[in-house]
Amino acid sequence: MNTQATLSETPADDATEPALFATMSTMRAMRRLQPDPVPDELLDRLIQAAVWGPSGGNMQRYEYVVVTDPEVMAELAPLWKRCVDAYLATTGKYAPAGMDEAAYGRMVAAIEYQRDHFAETPALIIPCYRFPEPRMEEEGVRKYAEALGAEATARMGRIQERFSALAEGSCVYPGVQNLLLAARALGLAANITIWHLMLEEEWKAALGIPEDMNTFAAIPVGWPRGNFGPVSRRPVAEVVHRNRW
């Protein structure tokens, strides 16, 4: 059985379920957008939804670049094309294991459509975050090492870069998911990518983003060409491990 084609176990139109479940179960990545502008008021609602998301330590150091100027979008289009072409030539060259080739072909066609029409994108949102420098005192470091133990402290030293990246991402992506949910609830098409990171310096230069500010996604937003529909995901029984792996 094609597990990735298995639909959500909860029908999207089940009147007994909270509306949020129907929203989540029909939140496909929508890459074909109409060129019509999205009102600033709606874009502000998306950012408000993102701001409501949890942020590690309640630091709230996120910033959002919202691009709606067609001239700026036209400047970004060649960068987007280079990133998409690099992806399709490597990771995106083959369908994921278990995914039907025809379905993957349709997804690639949508990616190529978005690439070729990127200059017409009504809005693009770039979530950014600047993680503060940690405040470390000698006494705190000593207690930290005591709490973890020598072996775990040494291991943390080896994975510190990964730990820091995950800590920063965990402050951003919950808000991004809120943004995507809000877009779906408002009838807007959106999809999240991180392909821009392949040329992050060029993107930041084009948008005037400070060098010490990290970017975490590029989210095109607009009114959809086509209809929302149920997502295809693996069933819960295949992915859950209860109590232990």
What is the strand and helix layout of this fold?
Elements: H1 19-25, H2 40-51, E1 62-67, H3 70-89, H4 101-116, E2 123-129, H5 138-148, H6 150-158, H7 160-170, H8 173-185, E3 189-190, H9 200-207, E4 214-215, E5 219-222, H10 236-239
Antiparallel strand pairs: 1-2, 2-4, 2-5, 3-5
Pfam families: Nitroreductase
Protein name: Nitroreductase family protein
Domain Nitroreductase: 28-223
What are the defining features of this structure?
alpha+beta, 245 residues, five-stranded antiparallel beta sheet, disordered N terminus, 45% helix
Secondary structure tally, helices: 10
- Major sheet summary line: 5 strands, antiparallel
Write down the overall mean pLDDT. 89
Radius of gyration (CA) equals: 20 Å
The percent range for helix content is 40-55%
The amount of beta strand, in percent, is: 5-15%
Quote the distance from N terminus to C terminus. 23 Å
Structural class of the helices, strands and pairings? alpha+beta
What's the count of strands? 5
The poorly predicted ranges are 1-10
Q: What is the N-to-C succession of helices and strands?
A: HHEHHEHHHHEHEEH
Task: State the shape.
Answer: globular
Pfam families: Nitroreductase
InterPro entries: Nitroreductase, Nitroreductase-like, Nitroreductase/BluB
Organism: Streptomyces incanus
Domain Nitroreductase: 28-223
Task: Explain how this protein is built.
It holds the Pfam family Nitroreductase. This is Nitroreductase family protein. It comes from Streptomyces incanus. InterPro entries: Nitroreductase, Nitroreductase-like, Nitroreductase/BluB. The N terminus is likely disordered. α2 crosses α8 and α5 crosses α6. The longest helix is centred in the N-terminal third of the chain and has 20 residues. The protein has 245 residues and is α+β, with helices and mostly antiparallel strands. Strands 1, 2, 3, 4 and 5 form a five-stranded antiparallel sheet that branches. The relative contact order is 0.23. The chain has ten helices and five strands; from the N terminus they run ααβααβααααβαββα.
